[in-house]
Specification:
single chain, 6-stranded parallel sheet, alpha/beta, 424 residues, 46% helix, 10 strands
Length: 424
């Protein structure tokens, strides 16, 4: 039984000149621009070279199954989807915790009055080397056994043959199918039972933990509400309060999953507010109602105590500098005082959220100018979003023009060694 502790999504800066060969054709045009050429070895890194977990998984032969252990809501399932689907893998999920032993052994039926054959689930057929598997399902595949340790011991025992022999009934798994299972730990008090040692001995084990820096990178490109991003940047210990919830017996607590749920609720509130406030001269009552709504919803998702802290943070950051004000005149737009760090974080998060919308990408230069004026650590965050917009949203002509701008030159002189941006 092999075990390894890995921070999912850790992002080391890797330099590899050979990666230039892998740059998509539409970015070749920028290679002639010195400032971008200096950055290409960092920008063109494939996801697998910036993710410790994925690097480990890819080194292992396909026939070695992997078990992901982690607390509820940490992002085991979401991480697999975000990591493997862009690489061309198809994920076939199996709710292992809801399976019966007969799902794995197969249901016997009479075959021509000669002997019994066994019917197996459709997912087993789609992962097999049977010649009638549809063409669309024959590519690289992850057979994902979710919540395997919530299954009764008899069901877990039924997985022995599938995990070890890669066989179910009369079907063999294809060579391009990898088995990955996931589950909570017994100490998480989440209906998990101990995995039989005979089954555990068949897996490569990875213990997943959260990393707020990696989560913020994911949040930046996945429409997480800017208020939440600003809050986690200033209070990273609140990304997950699961351990505290176990001690106190709370049912509502913070995890990467619950913050995403709260983000969806806040986006819905924003849309509702825009409809209500349209044409109103005084929206103060609606603002107070919105604060009450945010507190009630947050209480039900991340817990009442943290909801109060989050609500106070939002109230204190209402003085953020609006993106529209920065666009209007980035060289003279107000900058929050250094002691008002929460407001500055909120300003940067709001600017990130604003500029990544297609209709606002043309304003990248204004936000780059503003980024160069504010505290370096937060300016780097905003500059990174500006570079991402330039590389992924602008035309080739505009991209070349941007790379030759004085703002780009100033940015590379200030942050060139620290900046990595994933190219889409």
């Amino acid at each position: 039984m092999i075990q390894q502790k890995i921070a999912v999504g850790a992002v080391p800066v890797v330099r590899n000149p050979q990666l230039r060969k892998r740059i998509p054709l539409r970015f070749v045009v920028v290679a002639a621009v010195p400032s971008l050429r200096r950055m290409l070895p960092l920008l063109a890194l494939p996801v697998d070279e910036r993710n410790e977990t994925l690097k480990t998984i890819k080194i292992l032969p396909n026939h070695i199954p992997i078990m992901l252990w982690g607390s509820p809501g940490i992002g085991k399932t979401k991480g697999l989807h975000c990591t493997f689907e862009p690489m061309g893998y198809r994920l076939i999920p199996v709710l292992a915790g809801c399976s019966e032993p007969t799902d794995l052994s197969g249901i016997p039926f009479n075959y021509k009055d000669l002997y019994a054959k066994y019917l197996v689930p459709g997912w087993a057929f789609l992962c097999s080397d049977h010649p009638e598997v549809p063409k669309d399902y024959r590519g690289p595949t992850i057979l994902f056994l979710d919540d395997i340790v919530t299954a009764p011991e008899q069901t877990q025992a039924a997985f022995f043959k599938l995990v070890h022999e890669r066989r179910l009934g009369e079907l063999n798994l294809r060579s391009n199918v990898r088995i990955i299972a996931a589950g909570n730990r017994v100490e998480d008090k989440s209906a998990a039972s101990r995995m039989p040692l005979a089954l555990a001995n068949r897996f490569f084990h990875i213990h997943v933990k959260h990393d707020f820096r990696v989560w913020l990178e994911w949040a930046r490109t996945n429409n997480i509400h800017p208020n939440i991003m600003a809050f986690i940047r200033t209070q990273p210990n609140f990304l997950s309060t699961f351990d505290d919830a176990i001690k106190k017996g709370h049912y509502a607590f913070a995890t990467p999953r619950s913050w995403e749920m709260l983000s969806d609720s806040l986006h819905a509130l924003d849309a509702a507010q825009m409809r209500r406030w349209k044409g109103k001269a005084d929206a103060s009552n609606d603002q107070k109602s919105a604060e009450n709504y945010t507190f009630r919803v947050a209480s039900g998702i991340i817990g009442q105590g943290l909801a109060a802290v989050f609500n106070t943070f939002i109230r204190n950051t209402m003085a953020l500098i609006a993106p529209e004000e920065i666009v209007k005149d980035p060289r003279t737009a107000r900058i929050p005082k250094n002691e008002d760090i929460d407001i500055l974080h909120a300003t940067v998060s709001a600017a990130e959220h604003y500029i990544k919308k297609k209709e606002h990408s043309k304003h990248w230069q204004a936000f780059m100018i503003y980024a160069l004026r504010i505290l370096p650590d937060l300016g780097l965050i905003l500059a990174k979003q500006c570079v991402s917009v330039v590389l992924n949203d602008l035309t080739d002509e505009d991209r070349i023009r941007a790379a030759g701008s004085p703002e780009f030159s100033d940015m590379f002189n200030k942050w060139g060694e620290h900046l990595t941006v994933e190219m889409v």
